[in-house]
Amino acid sequence: MLNALVVYAAEEGHNTNPLIPAWYDIIWSAVCFVIILFVFWRVALPKMKTLLDERAAAIEGNIARADEAQRKAEAALVEYTSQLAEARKEAGEIRDAAREDGKKIVAEAKDAASAEASRLTAAAHTQIEAERQSALVTLRGEVGTLALDLAGGVIGETLSDDAKAKSVVDRFLADLEKTK
Fold first, then answer.
1. Cβ-contact 168, 151 below 8 angstroms
2. Distance of alpha carbon 94 from alpha carbon 43, whole angstroms
3. Residue by residue, what is the 3-state secondary structure of 39-96?
4. What is the Cα–Cα distance from 70 to 104, expressed in whole angstroms?
5. How far apart are CA 143 and CA 173, in angstroms?
6. Mind listing the pLDDT tens digit for each residue in 94-131?
7. CB 176 within 8 A of CB 139
8. What are the Cα distances from residue 36, in Å, to 25, 46, 52, 104?
9. Dihedral over Cα of 56, 62, 66, 67: its sign
10. 3-class DSSP state of 8
11. This model's pTM is above 0.90
12. pLDDT at 46
Protein backbone atom coordinates (compact mmCIF):
# COMPACT_ATOMS: atom_id res chain seq x y z
CA MET A 1 0.00 0.00 0.00
CA LEU A 2 2.82 2.31 0.66
CA ASN A 3 4.07 1.72 -2.86
CA ALA A 4 0.70 2.68 -4.25
CA LEU A 5 0.75 5.99 -2.39
CA VAL A 6 4.23 6.81 -3.62
CA VAL A 7 3.20 5.99 -7.18
CA TYR A 8 0.06 8.15 -6.89
CA ALA A 9 1.99 11.09 -5.53
CA ALA A 10 4.56 10.81 -8.29
CA GLU A 11 1.89 10.70 -11.01
CA GLU A 12 0.16 13.85 -10.00
CA GLY A 13 3.31 15.81 -10.13
CA HIS A 14 2.87 17.62 -6.94
CA ASN A 15 5.96 19.03 -5.39
CA THR A 16 4.31 20.08 -2.19
CA ASN A 17 5.26 19.10 1.29
CA PRO A 18 2.57 16.91 2.84
CA LEU A 19 3.21 18.41 6.30
CA ILE A 20 2.23 21.93 5.26
CA PRO A 21 -1.52 22.35 4.71
CA ALA A 22 -3.06 24.20 1.79
CA TRP A 23 -3.69 27.94 2.13
CA TYR A 24 -7.51 27.61 2.10
CA ASP A 25 -7.27 25.13 5.04
CA ILE A 26 -5.19 27.66 6.97
CA ILE A 27 -7.71 30.47 6.28
CA TRP A 28 -10.77 28.43 7.24
CA SER A 29 -9.00 27.10 10.32
CA ALA A 30 -8.06 30.67 11.32
CA VAL A 31 -11.69 31.84 10.85
CA CYS A 32 -12.98 28.95 12.97
CA PHE A 33 -10.33 29.67 15.58
CA VAL A 34 -11.28 33.37 15.75
CA ILE A 35 -14.98 32.51 16.08
CA ILE A 36 -14.31 29.98 18.85
CA LEU A 37 -11.94 32.43 20.53
CA PHE A 38 -14.58 35.19 20.38
CA VAL A 39 -17.30 32.92 21.81
CA PHE A 40 -14.93 31.69 24.52
CA TRP A 41 -13.83 35.25 25.30
CA ARG A 42 -17.39 36.65 25.51
CA VAL A 43 -19.33 33.75 26.99
CA ALA A 44 -17.23 31.08 28.63
CA LEU A 45 -14.48 33.22 30.16
CA PRO A 46 -16.85 35.63 32.07
CA LYS A 47 -18.86 32.68 33.35
CA MET A 48 -15.69 30.92 34.40
CA LYS A 49 -14.42 34.11 36.08
CA THR A 50 -17.74 34.56 37.91
CA LEU A 51 -17.67 30.93 39.01
CA LEU A 52 -14.08 31.22 40.26
CA ASP A 53 -14.88 34.50 42.08
CA GLU A 54 -17.89 32.89 43.77
CA ARG A 55 -15.84 29.87 44.75
CA ALA A 56 -13.06 32.11 46.14
CA ALA A 57 -15.63 34.14 48.10
CA ALA A 58 -17.21 30.96 49.43
CA ILE A 59 -13.80 29.62 50.48
CA GLU A 60 -12.92 32.92 52.17
CA GLY A 61 -16.31 32.95 53.90
CA ASN A 62 -15.82 29.39 55.09
CA ILE A 63 -12.36 30.28 56.37
CA ALA A 64 -13.81 33.31 58.19
CA ARG A 65 -16.60 31.16 59.69
CA ALA A 66 -14.05 28.52 60.67
CA ASP A 67 -11.89 31.19 62.34
CA GLU A 68 -14.94 32.54 64.17
CA ALA A 69 -15.96 29.04 65.23
CA GLN A 70 -12.43 28.39 66.46
CA ARG A 71 -12.45 31.64 68.47
CA LYS A 72 -15.82 30.69 69.96
CA ALA A 73 -14.52 27.20 70.77
CA GLU A 74 -11.44 28.67 72.45
CA ALA A 75 -13.62 31.09 74.43
CA ALA A 76 -15.89 28.21 75.43
CA LEU A 77 -12.85 26.18 76.46
CA VAL A 78 -11.55 29.04 78.59
CA GLU A 79 -15.00 29.48 80.15
CA TYR A 80 -15.32 25.73 80.72
CA THR A 81 -11.87 25.62 82.31
CA SER A 82 -12.71 28.52 84.62
CA GLN A 83 -16.05 26.94 85.56
CA LEU A 84 -14.31 23.64 86.22
CA ALA A 85 -11.72 25.35 88.43
CA GLU A 86 -14.49 27.21 90.25
CA ALA A 87 -16.47 23.98 90.71
CA ARG A 88 -13.37 22.24 92.08
CA LYS A 89 -12.80 25.16 94.47
CA GLU A 90 -16.43 25.02 95.62
CA ALA A 91 -16.19 21.24 96.05
CA GLY A 92 -13.08 21.72 98.20
CA GLU A 93 -14.86 24.34 100.28
CA ILE A 94 -17.89 22.08 100.71
CA ARG A 95 -15.62 19.18 101.64
CA ASP A 96 -13.78 21.35 104.20
CA ALA A 97 -17.08 22.63 105.60
CA ALA A 98 -18.35 19.06 105.86
CA ARG A 99 -15.20 18.05 107.72
CA GLU A 100 -15.61 20.96 110.10
CA ASP A 101 -19.28 20.10 110.60
CA GLY A 102 -18.30 16.47 111.22
CA LYS A 103 -15.73 17.56 113.80
CA LYS A 104 -18.32 19.78 115.49
CA ILE A 105 -20.86 16.96 115.51
CA VAL A 106 -18.30 14.54 116.97
CA ALA A 107 -17.26 17.11 119.59
CA GLU A 108 -20.91 17.79 120.48
CA ALA A 109 -21.57 14.05 120.70
CA LYS A 110 -18.51 13.62 122.94
CA ASP A 111 -19.65 16.52 125.13
CA ALA A 112 -23.17 15.11 125.30
CA ALA A 113 -21.80 11.65 126.11
CA SER A 114 -19.53 13.11 128.78
CA ALA A 115 -22.41 15.09 130.26
CA GLU A 116 -24.63 12.01 130.18
CA ALA A 117 -21.87 9.91 131.76
CA SER A 118 -21.36 12.56 134.45
CA ARG A 119 -25.10 12.71 135.07
CA LEU A 120 -25.36 8.92 135.24
CA THR A 121 -22.31 8.76 137.53
CA ALA A 122 -23.76 11.43 139.79
CA ALA A 123 -27.13 9.67 139.80
CA ALA A 124 -25.41 6.35 140.56
CA HIS A 125 -23.42 7.95 143.38
CA THR A 126 -26.59 9.52 144.75
CA GLN A 127 -28.42 6.22 144.51
CA ILE A 128 -25.52 4.35 146.12
CA GLU A 129 -25.37 6.90 148.93
CA ALA A 130 -29.13 6.62 149.44
CA GLU A 131 -28.91 2.84 149.48
CA ARG A 132 -25.98 3.05 151.88
CA GLN A 133 -27.95 5.30 154.19
CA SER A 134 -30.93 2.97 153.94
CA ALA A 135 -28.70 -0.01 154.64
CA LEU A 136 -27.16 1.80 157.62
CA VAL A 137 -30.58 2.59 159.03
CA THR A 138 -31.74 -0.97 158.49
CA LEU A 139 -28.48 -2.32 159.86
CA ARG A 140 -28.67 -0.09 162.91
CA GLY A 141 -32.13 -1.37 163.62
CA GLU A 142 -31.20 -5.00 163.19
CA VAL A 143 -27.83 -4.71 164.92
CA GLY A 144 -29.51 -2.78 167.69
CA THR A 145 -32.11 -5.49 168.17
CA LEU A 146 -29.48 -8.21 168.07
CA ALA A 147 -27.20 -6.27 170.42
CA LEU A 148 -30.04 -5.73 172.88
CA ASP A 149 -30.95 -9.40 172.77
CA LEU A 150 -27.30 -10.36 173.15
CA ALA A 151 -26.73 -7.84 175.93
CA GLY A 152 -29.91 -9.04 177.64
CA GLY A 153 -28.67 -12.62 177.40
CA VAL A 154 -25.26 -11.64 178.84
CA ILE A 155 -26.66 -9.44 181.56
CA GLY A 156 -29.56 -11.61 182.25
CA GLU A 157 -32.20 -8.98 182.06
CA THR A 158 -34.15 -7.44 179.24
CA LEU A 159 -33.37 -3.98 178.10
CA SER A 160 -36.76 -2.54 177.42
CA ASP A 161 -35.95 1.10 178.01
CA ASP A 162 -35.72 2.63 174.55
CA ALA A 163 -33.45 5.51 175.48
CA LYS A 164 -31.07 3.27 177.31
CA ALA A 165 -31.16 0.68 174.51
CA LYS A 166 -30.55 3.32 171.88
CA SER A 167 -27.53 4.70 173.70
CA VAL A 168 -26.07 1.18 174.07
CA VAL A 169 -26.59 0.46 170.36
CA ASP A 170 -25.08 3.81 169.33
CA ARG A 171 -22.06 3.23 171.54
CA PHE A 172 -21.63 -0.29 170.10
CA LEU A 173 -21.81 0.96 166.51
CA ALA A 174 -19.40 3.81 167.25
CA ASP A 175 -16.92 1.33 168.70
CA LEU A 176 -17.45 -0.88 165.67
CA GLU A 177 -16.73 1.97 163.25
CA LYS A 178 -13.59 2.95 165.20
CA THR A 179 -12.17 -0.54 164.76
CA LYS A 180 -12.33 -0.30 161.00
1. yes
2. 75
3. HHHHHHHHHHHHHHHHHHHHHHHHHHHHHHHHHHHHHHHHHHHHHHHHHHHHHHHHHH
4. 50
5. 8
6. 999 999 999 999 999 999 989 999 999 999 999 999 88
7. no
8. 16, 15, 21, 97
9. positive
10. helix
11. no
12. 94
